[in-house]
Design brief:
single chain, 434 Repressor (Amino-terminal Domain), Endonuclease, Chain A, 6 strands, about 50% helix, elongated
C-alpha cells in the first residue's frame, strides 16, 4: 500500500489548493493517474500539486474545473489559483488599484453588496470572515483584504480627492450583511458619504428592470490625462481594460444607468427608509 504524504491545508494557500485537489479526487474515487488522464497531465504532476511541490497554473486549474464540473462557480479551482497568485485579490485587480490611486474621477456600479470603497470596517470584516468560513480564503488573507481596503479608502480623504460617482443596485442596501447593527452603521455611512462635496450616490431601483445596463460590478476610472480605464469582475476573475474601443461603450452604458437611477436625494431617502425598516 502506498503511503500518502499527510497534507496540511493551513500551511499556505498553495497547500490548501493541493489538499483540495486530493480530497476532490478521492471523493470521485479516482487515482492520481485517472485524474491525470482527465486533465491532460501526468500522475506525477498531480502528485506534485497535491503535495505543494509544484504550484498550479491557470491552465491546470481550468482543466480541474472541467473534470470536477466547477467551471464558472464560486468554488472553482481557477478562482483559487487567482487567489494564490494575487493573495485574496482577483487577477487584474492589483493593477487596477494602481490606476485608482491616480484617478481624478471614479465611477462604481455594484450588485448585492456595497462597493468596497464605501464599506465600513465592520461590514468589510463580515464579508471577509464569510469567505474564510467558505474556505475561499485564509484568515491571514482576510485580514490583508480588510487592511488593503482601508488603504484604498484613505485616497478618498486626501487633500485633492477624486470625484466619486456611485450607482448601486437596490439589492446593495436591502441585502442584510452582519446583522442589524452592522447594516445600520453601513447605511448611515452611505448617507454621510452622499453629503461629501466630491461624491454622487444613486440607487438603481428594482423597477428599472431590463433598463439596467450592467449585470456585473463595473469600475471606471478617469485618469489625469482624461484616459478611461475599466475594471469588471466575473465570479472567477477580474479584467482590466484600457482599450478605447471597448471602454467608451462601458462609459456610455454607465451614463445611461445613471439616467435611469434615482436622484441622490431620492436615493438617500430610500436608504433612510431601509434603516427604519420601511419596505
Amino acid at each position: 500500500m502506498v503511503n500518502l504524504k499527510e497534507l496540511n491545508p493551513d500551511a499556505s494557500p498553495q497547500a490548501a489548493y493541493g489538499a483540495r485537489v486530493r480530497s476532490s479526487r478521492e471523493a470521485r474515487g479516482w487515482t492520481q493517474d485517472e485524474l491525470a488522464e482527465q486533465v491532460g497531465y501526468s500522475g506525477r504532476h498531480i502528485s506534485a500539486v497535491e503535495t505543494g511541490r509544484k504550484p498550479p497554473t491557470r491552465r491546470f486549474s481550468r482543466s480541474l474545473d472541467t473534470a470536477f464540473e466547477l467551471t464558472g462557480t464560486a468554488d472553482s479551482f481557477e478562482r483559487a489559483w487567482g487567489e494564490i497568485r494575487n493573495g485574496s485579490l482577483l487577477e487584474g485587480f492589483p493593477e487596477y488599484v494602481k490606476y485608482e490611486g491616480r484617478a481624478v474621477e471614479i465611477r462604481l456600479y455594484n450588485i448585492g453588496i456595497v462597493p468596497g470603497l464605501l464599506q465600513t470596517p465592520e461590514y468589510a470584516r463580515v464579508l471577509a470572515e464569510s469567505a474564510v468560513r467558505r474556505g475561499a480564503i485564509t484568515s491571514e488573507q482576510a485580514q490583508k483584504r480588510v487592511s488593503f481596503l482601508a488603504e484604498r479608502q484613505a485616497a478618498l480623504v486626501q487633500s485633492r480627492p477624486p470625484m466619486v460617482f456611485v450607482t448601486m443596485d437596490e439589492s446593495c442596501i436591502r441585502r442584510p450583511v452582519g446583522g442589524a447593527s452592522v447594516m445600520d452603521a453601513q447605511l448611515a455611512h452611505l448617507v454621510d458619504f452622499a453629503k461629501l462635496p466630491n461624491t454622487l450616490l444613486q440607487v438603481a431601483p428594482y423597477e428599472i428592470g431590463e433598463r439596467r445596463t450592467f449585470d456585473l460590478p463595473v469600475n471606471l476610472l478617469t485618469l489625469p490625462d482624461r484616459a478611461v480605464v475599466c475594471y469588471a469582475e466575473s465570479q472567477a476573475q477580474g479584467n482590466l481594460d484600457r482599450e478605447t474601443a471597448s471602454v467608451v461603450p462601458m462609459l456610455t452604458a454607465y451614463h445611461q444607468l445613471q439616467a435611469e437611477a434615482m436622484s441622490q436625494t431620492a436615493s438617500v431617502a430610500m436608504i433612510e427608509q431601509v434603516r427604519k425598516g420601511i419596505p
